[in-house]
Amino acid sequence: MKILIYSANYAPEPTGIGKYSGEMAEWLAAKGHEVRVVAAPPYYPNWKVADGYQWPPYRRESLNGVDVWRAPLWVPAQPGGVKRVLHLLSFALSSAPVMLRQTFWSPDVVLTVAPAMACAPMGWLTARLCGATAWLHVQDFEVDVAFQMNLLKGRRLKSLALWLERSVLRRFDKVSSISSKMVEKLRLKGLDGDAIELFPNWVDTAGVNPLQQPSSFRAQLGIRHDQTVALFSGTWGSKQNLLSIPAAARLLQHRQDIVFVICGDGVMRAELEAACAGLGNVYLLPLQPTERLCDLLGMADVHLLTQSAEAEDLVLPSKLTGMLSSGRPVVATCRTGTELGQVVSHCGLVVAPDCIPSLADAVVALADDPARRRELGGFARSYAEKSFAKEPILARWLGLATRPRMPATVLPEQEAN
């Protein structure tokens, strides 16, 4: 089968959507399918085009059996609001001729990955021109997030943006998202239930598993064996509510047996470094290579999953899958009624998003109770194996994608309200 993936973010980006789009394409290629990808050059999470990709602006390369076509985009140093919109539009425009060229290849399925809703019309058009299944995968409700976090403002602008989004969504044969709450939101946006699929992010449960020996990162950072490590590993962005971690660490400076490790990179680097200045119980680490991921996540005695309240149920953090697979408990800052809260309540502790003392208390509670950590960590690993294992998730998508295409149902406009 010929499968075309249209994703602004792609490998070798180490985190987020680029990681998942890359793993999916390589898995499909390994199964014997012809896979092409139209993507931007790698730039995330540093928000800087990677070395070696600045020129030429258009290129074609082979990565692990996948035929990758690159188109340029504008990358702002400080993304936000209108700049982020222009950033996504720049790729939609530059990649349009590359997508149209793929019609001569005649793919059977065109999978467009959002955010980058600006790319959805061209993904849909390419599919229609060659009679392929048009599939849109929503990793992030970018329009809702932008307005809820005040990156974009204005009642009329919001109404227009949501109307345009709804109009695009309802033209695809299939629209999927990564959590049950996000799937429900697709229904509320007016999609036909038969067109909606749950397609969660995954983890390689064989590659990320509970360590049976101390992580090498402990020796690297000089962390004693009797100290409890509270770890955040992921993108340093505005949705992560990252500044709550050094604030909690400041409250726990008297606890010599608890240390915090924050690993990653992103637009909040300068703010995070400033907030951690002078804190002897906080270590900052850069992004680590994939081959060290199991060792990194296994360093944690407790995983920290902080998140902005405004983004609740509009995104399900992709980093959660690795945390659970590592067999360690999670402390999440979210409300209990959210999907993240429901998952973490079985394998960790849930605290209010804006309550720093509660975050510190949760870390202390788990640091002081090793037996509870082991129990919750066991629940986390079991949940990962049951719900987020890579092979069955991708095999299910492939089975759905290979079914005969049914015409998309466009509902009357009033039914979408």
| Beta-strand content bin | 15-25%
Q: What is the topology, as strand order, of the major beta sheet?
A: 3-4-2-1-5-6-7-8
Q: How many separate domains?
A: 2
Order of helices and strands: EHEEEHEHEHHEHEHEHEHEHEHEHEHHH
The major beta sheet can be summarized as: 8 strands, mixed
Characterization of this structure:
With 417 residues, the protein is an alpha/beta fold. The protein folds into two domains: 2-202 and 390-416, Rossmann fold (3-Layer(aba) Sandwich), CATH 3.40.50; 216-387, 3-Layer(aba) Sandwich (Rossmann fold), CATH 3.40.50. It is 38% helix and 17% strand. The protein is built from 15 helices and 14 strands. The protein has helices at 16-30, 82-101, 120-130, 142-148, 155-169, 180-188, 216-221, 244-251, 269-276, 293-298, 319-325, 339-344, 356-367, 370-387, 390-401; strands at 2-6, 34-39, 59-63, 66-70, 109-114, 133-138, 174-177, 196-198, 228-235, 258-265, 282-285, 302-305, 330-333, 348-351. Helix 2 runs parallel beside helix 3, helix 8 crosses helix 13 and helix 11 (319-325) packs across helix 14. The protein is globular. The two termini are 38 Å apart.
